[in-house]
Amino acid sequence: MPFGTPPKQLSPGGDFGWLKKTYTWYADVVSPMASSAGDRHGHNISAQDFGFQADSKNASAPGGSYPSSALSCTSCHDPHGTYRRNQDGTISTSGKPIRDSGSYDTSPTPDAQTSVGSYRMLGGTGYVPQGMTGGLAFSFAPPSAVAPSDYNRSEATTLTRVAYGSGFSDWCRNCHTNIHNGTYSFKHPAAGFASGASAGTLDVTMINYYDQYIKTGDLTGSAATAYFSLVPFEIGTQNYSILKSIVTTSPTKGPDLADGSPAVMCLSCHRGHASGWDYGMRWNSKTSQITYNGKYSQESLLYQPYGQGRTEAEALQAYYQTPSLKFDPSQQGLCYKCHATVPQ
Ligand code: HEC
Ligand code: HEC
Ligand code: HEC
Ligand code: HEC
């Protein structure tokens, strides 16, 4: 990855190329050099042939025990795609043949003769890659979601909306059992009904606030256009006709109690693969404002407390080409899309 040039892919999961980008900067004249290591930018898949090494800090999944040395594409995706969604909505590893992908708005609906694949061929209950021991087998099902077929695209003018339905937080807890629940790391709810984590649904006040929030200082938004792909939420349903209709007919609508129980989930803040920011975050959570003077980067300046070593091209790509001018010139972090004040 050449200096100053961002990775190319803009898929919802995020480009693993960010793992090869380490940034350093000085925040001010007194502070020591700060850094954001490539390792910290998400899931370090070990793929030696492509120069991807296992994570150098975490020996295992934070809040769980999955070994970092064994983390690869097939830790999460079942290469044989045996997990299937059936006509009655259940997930199984055998039964009716899988007719097609189940990930898209264009995917067929399972019927009496055929099933479709799980979202993105993600592994479900009992999944454990070949060669790993049974104690690491997944406890939770693949999540429910629908992606648009043109999902790998610039968001310079329009958003890419994945209709995240339900089950993402539980699915991530297959490996991160005790994350953000007060025993490990920053405390925050992420609704997961299968794991009994019921906190994290958005109440009416938060839904209204999400709908109104456009950017720092601008609360003039409305429900029909409130969705923001840098701060997605779970719709709170496994009903695929609702999920498909949201992707195709109202791709930008905000959380709606008529569709399900909207909730904050792991992917509200993180990307599934990697991002340009620490901890695979969707935005830079290590700075008090994500724009400065209307720009993401402070590339020509000596001190870069906000730009943090990224070039404008890199930061723009990390925000999926969202123009910096869509934000306030001194835009706060995106926790404020849901919280009027961020609780301490
Ligand atoms: C830690 C679990 C995990 C690992 C490891 C992982 N994936 Fe994914 N992948 C996901 C999730 C979750 C999604 C869905 C992302 C979304 O829709 O927001 C996804 C989505 C995808 C997609 C659809 C496009 C996109 O980015 O949304 C492709 C293709 C893909 N993964 C390929 C890979 C490959 C190739 C590897 C290894 C180099 C890999 N994945 C490793 C969890 C993982
Ligand atoms: C198959 C097990 C597995 C699953 C499933 C999984 N992770 Fe991870 N995750 C790991 C391991 C192992 C690490 C530590 C290695 C690393 O940081 O690269 C990790 C690290 C992380 C980190 C820290 C990254 C960093 O750079 O410090 C975040 C954030 C994270 N996972 C989020 C998620 C989210 C969100 C999901 C669900 C979409 C998820 N994980 C699903 C195994 C998993
Ligand atoms: C409200 C936003 C938010 C949500 C929701 C969220 N995270 Fe995080 N996560 C963060 C932030 C911010 C950090 C960095 C915390 C820090 O600096 O210590 C983080 C850190 C992590 C880490 C790295 C911990 C470490 O010490 O290396 C993992 C793993 C992780 N999150 C997984 C998850 C999983 C799994 C879920 C869902 C069950 C989840 N997160 C939900 C914001 C969130
Ligand atoms: C998608 C919406 C959403 C986003 C984005 C979000 N939160 Fe939350 N947050 C919630 C919900 C829902 C709750 C639980 C209800 C409540 O406390 O109002 C919550 C609760 C909290 C709590 C109280 C946690 C506890 O258990 O005591 C803190 C602290 C918090 N959020 C901080 C943050 C921070 C920091 C960020 C950004 C990194 C963030 N939130 C981003 C939805 C969100």
TrEMBL record:
InterPro entries: Cytochrome_c-type_ET, Multihaem_cyt_sf
GO annotation, cellular component aspect: membrane
MF term (GO), any: metal ion binding
Main location: membrane
CDD domains: OmcS-like
Biased composition (Polar residues): 103-116
UniProt KW keywords: Electron transport, Heme, Iron, Membrane, Metal-binding, Transport
Disordered, as annotated region: 82-116
Record-annotated membrane-spanning stretches: none
SUPFAM superfamilies named among the record's database cross-references: Multiheme cytochromes
GO BP annotations listed: anaerobic respiration
Compartment annotation: Membrane
Name of the protein this chain belongs to: Cytochrome c
Source organism per UniProt: Geomonas limicola
